[in-house]
C-alpha cells in the first residue's frame, strides 16, 4: 500500500473509530474563520439534517439513528424542538405535545424531557445538536407550513429565556434560530428573532458559551448575514444553498467569507440526497451523489468551516405509514446508508490531514478563465504555502500557478468517492506553472490534487 494511502488509512482509524467525551460547546477559532474544541483542536462541522428527530422517533429509533451517524463520522445533528411537521398539534412518538396551552405558554414537561434525553444521548455518542428552538412557520407560515403563528416580541423573548436556561449547561449544543424562513420586509420578523436571541443569550452561562446562528431559506448572495451579521448574538453565518444542483455555491460562501467582522460561515442546507431536483422530480429527476459531493467540496474549498449533509427521507423521518413530503424514495432507516452519507467523512478526513486553522481559499491558483458551471476547479491552501489542494469536479485539465511553493514537493491524488489516495503520475509537479490532467474525466469523476512540501 502506498505510504499516502497508509497515512489516510491510519488517520481514518483515529478519527472515526473512537468517540471522545464532549468536554464543552464548540468555539470560534482565534482567526474567526473556523470552529475548535475547548482544548483548541480543530472541529470540522460535519452535520446531518434530522429536523424531525425529537418529533417523529421513539427512543430506540433515535439511538439507532445517532449510532449510525456517529459511525459514519458525523459530529453535528441539526434538529428542531418545535418541529416543522405540525409540531404543535401532532404529538411526538410518546404521545406528548410541547405545550399544554399557548397563551401564555404552559410547557409540557414530558415532551421536553424527551428532548433532554435525545440531546444527552447524542452527547454520549460524540454528537453535538444544532438545536432550532422552533421552525420558522411558528413565526410566519409563508406559502407552506402548518404553524400556527404564535410568536411576537414578548413571548419570543420569554421562550428564548426559558429554553436557553433549560439547556444552558449542555456541552454538546449549538443554537440555530430561523427555521427555513427569511425575515420579510416591512415586518417585525427581525425584531422577533432578535428578542428570542436576547432571551437565549441572557440565560447563557459564561463558563459554557453556546454558539448561535440562523438558518434561512435560499437567499442570494447571502444567508443569515443579510439581516444579522452585525448582531453580537450571531456567532457564525449559515446558508441554505437550496435543492437545485446547478448553483455556484462557492460564490455564496465567498460572499460571507469577505464580510467584516470576520465570522465562520457554512452551508446548513444543501441539495439533499434523493431529493427531487428543484422540487421537480417529473422533469428533473432526483439528486445524485456527484452533484452533492461537488457542492460540498466547492463550499469547503471556498472557505466554509464545514458542511451539512441532508437526506430527503431522513430529515422528515419518513416511514411507509406517514404522509410523504415531496416524494421520498424509501423509509428513513434504509436511507441512512446512502452513498453520500458514507462519503462525507472523506471530506472531513482530507481537510483535517493538513494544517487546519491557516487554510484559505485561493482563486488565483487556477490560471484559466472559468465559467460558473459544474466544471469549475477550485483551490485552497495554507497561508504559508505548505500545501495546496485543488478540487476538480469533473476531471477537467487546467493550468495551475504553484510559483509560491518552495522546496521539494510531493503530490498525490485523493479520491472523494472512496477516501483513497495515491501518488501523482505524469510530469512531476514543480514550483511554477503546471499543466495538470486528473486520472479520469466526466461527470462523477471528481478528484483532489494535494501538493505539499516533503
UniProtKB/TrEMBL annotation:
Domain Putative collagen-binding as annotated: residue spans: 360-451
PANTHER family: ENDOGLUCANASE (PTHR37836:SF3), LMO1036 PROTEIN (PTHR37836)
Parts of the chain that traverse the membrane: none
Listed name of the protein: Collagenase-like protein with putative collagen-binding domain
SUPFAM superfamilies per record: (Trans)glycosidases
Taxonomic source organism: Cecembia calidifontis
Residues making up the signal peptide according to the UniProt record: none
Residues covered by the Apiosidase-like catalytic domain: 29-357
InterPro entries (UniProt xref): Apiosidase-like_cat_dom (IPR025277), Collagen-bd_put (IPR024749), GH (IPR017853)
